[in-house]
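can u do me a favor
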């Protein structure tokens, strides 16, 4: 009988986002993606209309450091600008992974997936749900906890918790 880990996988998937900063929710989706794909590119949106707390190179480094050692060889973390479909095409990947937490995510995700498909009909978006305990987690809330001096370690890896403390300490000077 075939064990789960031997089931054939998609060679390459793309997990795009802002990751400002990466949380345990993102890492949960990444782990689920790695169960389905041999390799993943994490695509970090640069120059996003949203004002970010961390620069794109900082967000890339935080993700790289947060990756579990065993998965590092299968994950590339790259910043991108412009259209996701162009980045996807340039890297020869047509499977996009996105996390879906709550109903409120749905409309935005649906519009974006449809727009991407209009721009490049071969692209497919696959929505994954995180573990139940991570459903409520998002980067904005984590930043709010950090800004108010709360402990973010249940929500992010140690390198990210430390970076948040440093960033808000700096901003208060
Ligand atoms: P964006 O600004 O493009 O939505 P985010 O960094 O906020 O980027 O999120 C990237 C992806 O990770 C999105 O698909 C988002 O739904 C997903 N995600 C973020 N947090 C969680 C979580 N706690 N559980 C599941 N998916 C999540």
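np, heres the sequence
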């Amino acid at each position: 009988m075939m064990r789960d880990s031997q089931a054939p996988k998609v060679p390459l998937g793309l997990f795009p986002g802002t990751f400002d900063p990466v949380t345990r929710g993102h890492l949960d989706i990444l782990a689920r993606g790695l169960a389905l794909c041999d390799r993943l590119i994490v695509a970090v949106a640069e120059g996003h209309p949203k004002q970010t707390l961390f620069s794109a190179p900082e967000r890339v480094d935080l993700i790289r450091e947060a990756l579990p050692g065993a998965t590092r060889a299968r994950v590339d973390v790259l910043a991108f600008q412009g259209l996701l479909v162009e980045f996807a095409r340039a890297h020869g990947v047509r499977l996009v992974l996105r996390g879906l937490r709550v109903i409120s995510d749905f409309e935005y995700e649906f519009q974006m997936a449809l727009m991407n498909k209009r721009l490049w009909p071969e692209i497919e978006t696959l929505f994954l749900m995180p573990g139940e305990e991570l459903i409520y987690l998002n980067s904005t809330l984590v930043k709010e906890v950090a800004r108010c001096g709360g402990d973010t370690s249940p929500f992010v890896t140690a390198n990210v918790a430390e970076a948040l403390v440093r960033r808000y300490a700096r901003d208060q000077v």
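Residues 17-19, 23, 25-26, 29, 98-99, 101, 105, 130, 134, 137-139 surround adenosine-5'-diphosphate (CB under 6 Å). hope that helps!!
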